[in-house]
Amino acid sequence: MSEERGARERQAGTGQDTAGEAPPGLLAHRVPDLGALELLLAVARLGSLGAAARELGITQPAASSRIRSMERQLGLALVDRSPRGSRLTETGALVTDWARRIVEAAEEFDAGAQALRVRRDSRLRVAASMTIAEYLLPRWLLALRAARPDTAVSLLAGNSTAVAERLLAGEADLGFVEGVSVPAGLDSAIVAHDRLIVVTAPGHPWSRRRRPLAAEELAATPLILREEGSGTRQVLDAALGGLARPLIELSSTTAVKAAAVGGAGPSVLSELAVGEELASRRLVRVPLEGATLTRSLRAVWPTGHPPVGPARELLGLTRSNA
Questions:
Q1: 267-270 and 186-200: which strand pairing?
Q2: What is the pTM of this model?
Q3: What is the CATH number of domain 31-118?
Q4: pLDDT tens digits, residue range 175-233?
Q5: What is the pLDDT of residues 166-183, one digit of tens each?
Q6: In the chain, what's the furthest Cα-to-Cα distance?
Q7: Domain 124-322 classification at class level
Q8: Torsion, CA 6, CA 10, CA 13, CA 17, rounded to 10
Q9: Do 102 and 130 meet the contact criterion of CB atoms below 8 Å apart?
Q10: Where do the H-state alpha helices sit in the chain?
């Protein structure tokens, strides 16, 4: 028993576990850092500690201190110093050959990581629900282009459900939705606020109303609506208790607006989308009471994976313009 205890104590004293493996991190204490190895290579190439220090942008005393520290760490004499310059010892020459391989491997590692960063930062895939894609995103992307002129942006436009699906499938880097809640599996940040309003063509009887429209009458009237799954439809259904009645269902805000302008019937649309039509009297706003049609517009991304690179910058731009 005493022999077993002695063996365990000797193993503890050498820093090894019972399997004879080095504890994590021990290698980092035995191997000099890359800066020290680069200095050693520069001394070997230039034959002077002072010249090596100048090449690496450090002082000669700092270079001497780093070499001495490396020699203490390794327990080896690496450099002979004399008034005529510095030269490697035989041991130093051998260590330098090994150091060269380490530094070259580190340079390859850095080049590969840089290539991945460039590939990531040179493109941005954005998925956005229709109202945001049509009326807000162009301004944000213009600001992003000024900040990152080399970033290529692709836009995937669809309803809020489709945006969530794209993000969760890894087909987009950042999304924007306009529904009443955050889709499952996504984190979010509010970037703007919006309000839905009831609109109709000037010839419709509602355009001449003197009293606000009641929510019950709106729910009982067939409307030109966005399709199910869109943020606009989600907000309207929530406000009317799921009672909105479709006269026509269309998959874009522009199509819904065109149908309403053409007199097909009343509609409920984002205030962002109809400013021009209201100003030119091609559409008339109908006051509404008894229903709240405000909503938050959100940037979204997969839970636990916050935006990075140009996606993060675009998110910052949307917040600053909110």
A1: antiparallel
A2: 0.62
A3: 1.10.10.10
A4: 999 878 898 999 999 999 999 999 999 999 999 988 999 999 999 999 999 988 888 89
A5: 999 999 999 999 878 898
A6: 103
A7: alpha beta
A8: -100
A9: no
A10: 2-13, 26-30, 34-46, 49-56, 60-74, 90-121, 130-135, 137-147, 160-168, 215-220, 231-239, 253-261, 275-279, 309-320
